[in-house]
Design goal:
This protein folds into two domains: about 120 residues, no CATH class; about 250 residues, Creatinase/methionine aminopeptidase superfamily (Creatine Amidinohydrolase). Helix content is about 20%, strand content about 25%. The protein has a five-stranded antiparallel β-sheet with strand order 2-6-5-3-4, with no helix packed on it. Strands 7, 8, 10 and 11 form a four-stranded antiparallel β-sheet that branches. Strands 1-13-14 form a three-stranded antiparallel β-sheet, with no helix packed on it. A hairpin with a 2-residue loop joins strand 20 and strand 21. The longest helix has 23 residues. The protein is globular, with a radius of gyration of 21 Å.
């Protein structure tokens, strides 16, 4: 799960009032307010963004951008980006495969630039590797979910999942990520996301969202589900069922030619028609060699026909979060755990998918022996 607020967050502010970009190729971009670089750039150029220092670096010498890019994405001189350009100068693959290159547009004096999200399209071999990482994460998730019973602590669940992941030759994706201490995110009842595994002992009637990530052969899997502990209330059961259906509805709307706004509006309408709210601040994302890649996948307040157009080779997470009350959230003192502002229950399901020519393929499918009784 990716939060809109991340390290280097100054690069991802919402539109500060400069107006909407008119060029169609800039649809789905986000504004970034950072100091202008102290070197001259044309209106459309290629630069590197240093998210740790919130600075822009020249992709080539300040006195000009000439020549061709290397197929490896190295720091050789680069040609100017052309409107609508979809492939790099080497013509071997899509522009976005150059992982460290961001197209930007200098808007005006005063230091505001426009940075476009960068989608890394995956080859069939890369998707095969990603599928294996997702499978390990999905199996570990269900092992932990099976163990989520009254009297079991969150730390117990975390140890169970980590043991399985490491036995598969993989490593936990979350552990150590920006300092996060656990293998799992364990969010109980009114906790929304990023719950740190603790000594808390599960009680009859609790619900718990378990989010698990695993890295295998250089690729990350990231998947989540919500289960009840023992006998749960009808309110909790309906929330869990609706959250799961909302995820699958989102997946169904991830097809070539559709846009992320089409998917988001369908998910939000589905949830709100049933009396639930969609969390805004915590969203889905691309994934692959990095745990969080572009694009950001939002599930609320989007219009149909807007956002990135989905194309074969995109790999993203579909993970809407539903609350019984308000969508508003608060971050607890540990800096990680997020809870509902009004104390209402929260539930989430997440699958990793690849967009193919025939539609979405779910990558985070567990082996049959690890499936839960209700088909999860």
């Amino acid at each position: 799960m990716e939060s809109i607020v991340l390290p280097g967050q100054d690069f991802f502010r919402r539109d500060p009032g400069l107006g909407k970009a008119t060029q169609p190729e800039w649809a789905g971009t986000q504004w970034a307010t950072v100091p202008s670089p102290d070197f001259q750039l044309p209106k459309r150029a290629l630069v590197l963004a240093d998210f740790d220092e919130d600075t822009l670096l020249p992709f080539s010498a300040p006195d000009g951008l000439q020549g061709d890019r290397t197929s490896s994405g190295g720091r050789s001189a680069a040609a100017l980006e052309q409107p609508g350009q979809n492939r790099c100068q080497c013509q071997q693959h899509r522009r976005s495969n150059h992982a460290d290159i961001l197209p930007v547009r200098i808007k005006a004096k005063g230091g505001t630039v426009l940075i476009r999200e960068q989608i890394r399209y995956k080859s069939k071999k890369e998707i095969d590797k990603l599928r294996e990482a997702c499978r390990v994460a999905a199996n570990a998730l269900r092992i932990a979910a099976r163990a989520a019973r009254p009297g079991v602590s969150l730390l117990d669940l975390d140890r169970i999942a980590e043991t399985y992941i490491r036995q598969q030759g993989a490593s936990p994706s979350f552990k150590g990520y920006h300092g996060f201490p656990g293998t799992l995110c364990t969010s109980v009842n009114d906790r929304v996301v990023h719950g740190i595994p603790s000594k808390y002992v599960l009680q009859e009637g609790d619900i718990i969202a378990i989010d698990c990530g695993a890295k295998l052969d250089g690729f990350h899997g990231d998947t989540c589900l919500t289960v009840g502990v023992g006998k749960i209330s009808d309110e909790a059961r309906m929330l869990i069922q609706t959250a799961q259906l909302a995820m699958y509805l989102g997946i169904e709307n991830c097809r070539p030619g559709l846009r992320l706004g089409d998917m988001a509006s369908a998910v939000q309408s589905f949830a709100e028609e049933r009396g639930y709210s969609i969390v805004r601040e915590y969203i889905g994302h691309g994934l692959g060699r990095d745990l969080h890649e572009d694009p950001q996948v939002v599930f609320a307040e989007q219009k149909p026909g807007t956002g990135f157009r989905m194309e074969p080779g995109m790999t993203i997470t579909i993970e809407p979060i539903l609350n019984t009350g308000s969508h508003r959230c608060l971050v607890e003192a540990d800096g990680w755990t997020v809870r509902t502002a009004d104390g209402g229950l929260s539930a989430q399901f997440e699958h990793d998918i690849a967009i193919t020519r025939n539609g979405p393929e779910i990558l985070s499918i567990p082996d049959a022996e690890y499936e839960l009784e209700d088909g999860l």
